[in-house]
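From the methods appendix. Each design record in this collection lists the tokenized structure first, followed by the designed amino acid sequence. Records were kept in a plain field format so they could be parsed without special tools. The example shown here is representative of the layout used throughout.

RECORD:
FOLD TOKENS (305 positions):
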């Protein structure tokens, strides 16, 4: 039967394979190869490439701006990940703990709504209507409470810009990871909770001994997805530092953009696509490393339902 359908299988798979090769595989291999060459523009022909070995990587790890971007992305991944996973799991547990279907759908939509709004619109809202030191929400709120120092704080100024950007970014990501946690919780048979309740287990005990073990695989998925989104962090850094790269907000993707397309704030742009490609390889390697580390650390322990 399979042999008879082989031509049809080939016909249907060919477009998908071609798209994969042209859109993903070829750019990945070209970027990897480019990272070992001195290349000015990504559109330069292969004849204009000059072999540089690992010089691009050495250059990156001795450049203060790139090192600062790696520090920022690590803090964003770690502190942002802790906050997002905590609130996403908390809200998921609350919404799946005996709440009516109508209320659950309503609150789920409200929490997920920021994820539907584009990052540009969301960032503009936070910068202009929440963090603004003259008429922003925080200014009005702290002013009403009598905290004049906090009311006049420049939340997007030096020293505060990174944490303000982190909070704004994480606010929009909670809903996405909440849905993944909810899908995992809803797959846990209710018999487990009922038996634990009859045995006298309180809410915390049921959460620790039933919910958490069954969510290990879901947690692993969330960590990997959070890593992928964090590595691609770009728009928020541009919004909070729209003119020049700032030590507070620069991420590897922002620095790569400057290397590949040149600085938008200088007349004489200096392009280094080879180093930009090396950044892409480094970030891809980090995703793969965290994926395998998560696979080893967060295990399912073969839990069966």
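DESIGN:
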């Amino acid at each position: 039967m399979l042999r008879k359908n082989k031509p049809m299988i080939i016909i249907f798979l060919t477009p998908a394979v071609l798209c994969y090769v042209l859109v993903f595989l070829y750019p990945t291999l070209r970027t990897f190869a480019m990272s070992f060459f001195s290349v000015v523009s990504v559109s330069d022909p292969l004849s204009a490439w000059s072999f540089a070995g690992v010089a691009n990587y050495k250059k990156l790890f001795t450049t203060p701006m790139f090192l600062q971007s790696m520090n920022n992305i690590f803090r964003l991944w770690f502190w942002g990940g802790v906050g997002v996973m905590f609130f996403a799991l908390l809200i998921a547990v609350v919404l799946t703990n005996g709440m009516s279907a109508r209320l659950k759908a309503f609150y789920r939509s409200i929490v997920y709504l920021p994820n539907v709004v584009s990052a540009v619109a969301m960032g503009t809202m936070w910068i202009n209507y929440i963090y603004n030191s003259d008429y922003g929400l925080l200014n009005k709120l702290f002013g009403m409470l009598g905290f004049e120092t906090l009311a006049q704080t420049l939340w997007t100024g030096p020293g505060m810009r990174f944490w303000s950007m982190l909070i704004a970014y994480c606010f929009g990501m909670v809903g996405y990871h909440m849905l993944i946690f909810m899908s995992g919780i809803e797959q846990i048979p209710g018999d487990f909770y009922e038996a634990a309740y009859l045995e006298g287990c309180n809410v915390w005990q049921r959460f620790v001994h039933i919910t958490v073990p069954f969510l290990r695989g879901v947690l692993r998925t969330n960590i990997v997805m959070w890593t992928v989104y964090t590595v691609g962090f770009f728009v928020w850094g541009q919004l909070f530092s729209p003119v020049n790269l700032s030590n507070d907000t620069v991420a590897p993707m922002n620095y790569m953009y400057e290397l590949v397309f040149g600085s938008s704030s200088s007349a004489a742009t200096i392009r280094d696509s080879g180093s930009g490609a090396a950044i892409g390889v480094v970030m891809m390697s980090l995703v793969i490393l965290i994926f395998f580390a998560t696979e080893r650390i967060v295990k399912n322990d073969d839990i069966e339902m």
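APPENDIX NOTE: The longest strand covers residues 37-38.
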